[in-house]
Amino acid sequence: EVQLVESGGGLVQPGGSLKLSCAASGFAVGSYAMDWVRLAPGKGLEWISTITIRGFTLYAEDVKGRFTISRDSAKNTLYLQLNSLKTEDTAMYYCRKNSIRGQGTQVTVSS
Fold it and tell me: What is the rounded CA–CA span in Å between residue 3 and residue 49?
């Protein structure tokens, strides 16, 4: 059974950083392209980043240069490093394999 469990969210001030983790089970994270997406109040699901099987990374324009996606195959975990956070980054963040998402982790950016 495929399972994804996100963690690492929290309350942070503008300009701050967080590192999100997504622990995977039922498959190997290195064998699939994986995404991070987010859902903000009043908005639709927004794609943020993808890491391909070969390790190439893709980012949405508004997070490029601030967020970094990575994975650790030994720990079977996907990560998203969030730097220079802005209030508009406030959202529930999900990792995703195809159409499967975890329960999400809340990121709130506020002073």
Answer: 19
**Are β-strands 67-72 and 57-59 bridged in parallel, bridged antiparallel, or unpaired?**
unpaired
Q: For the residues of 8-21, what is the DSSP string, one character each? A: --EEE-TT--EEEE
pLDDT average per 10 residues of sequence, the chain (111 residues) = 96 98 96 97 95 97 97 97 97 96 97 95
- Distant-in-sequence, close-in-space partners of 15: CB < 8 Å, separation ≥ 6: 84, 85
**Which residue, among 86, 101, 109, has the nearest Cα to 36 in the 3D structure?**
101
The upper half-sphere exposure of residue 109, i.e. CA atoms within 13 Å in the direction of its Cβ, equals: 18
Buried b (16+ CB within 10 A) or exposed e, 5-16: ebebbeebeeee
DSSP lists the bridge partners of residue 50 as 35, 58
